[in-house]
């Protein structure tokens, strides 16, 4: 019964946003993505301009997994 409840709730938890902080290690303007120093790549939606971001910049971002991609909804530079 517990396993059944976990299987039902698993897709719901994927819809929630997550937060992460890190240093930008790569930027792909063609793919509209950034990669943080931990190695994970995040997709930037319209409205978040990659032209203002720099490799080595520390950021905090909010993202959600959508279609197998980590899509950023909010990005803030850190000091």
Please outline the helices and strands.
Blueprint: H1 2-14, E1 18-28, E2 33-36, E3 41-43, E4 58-66, E5 69-77
Antiparallel strand pairs: 1-2, 1-4, 2-3, 4-5
Protein name: DUF1344 domain-containing protein
Organism: Rhizobium pisi
Keywords: Signal
Descriptive account of the structure:
The chain is of the alpha+beta class and 79 residues long. The chain has one domain: OB fold (Dihydrolipoamide Acetyltransferase, E2P) (Beta Barrel), CATH 2.40.50. The protein is built from one helix and five strands, in the order αβββββ. It has one helix at 2-14; strands spanning 18-28, 33-36, 41-43, 58-66, 69-77. Strands 3-2-1-4-5 form a five-stranded antiparallel sheet, with no helix packed on it. A hairpin with a 4-residue loop joins β1 (18-28) and β2.
The rough form would be described as globular
Q: What is the number of independent domains? A: 1
Q: What portion of the residues fall into strands of 2 or more residues?
A: over 45%
Broad structural category: alpha+beta
Quote the CATH topology.
OB fold (Dihydrolipoamide Acetyltransferase, E2P)
Order of helices and strands: HEEEEE
Radius of gyration, in Å, reads 15 Å
Helix content: 10-25%
- Assembly state here? single chain
State the helix count: 1
Query: Which ranges are low-confidence, i.e. pLDDT below 50, for 5 or more consecutive residues?
Result: 1-14
Mean pLDDT: 83
The CATH homologous superfamily name equals: Copper binding periplasmic protein CusF
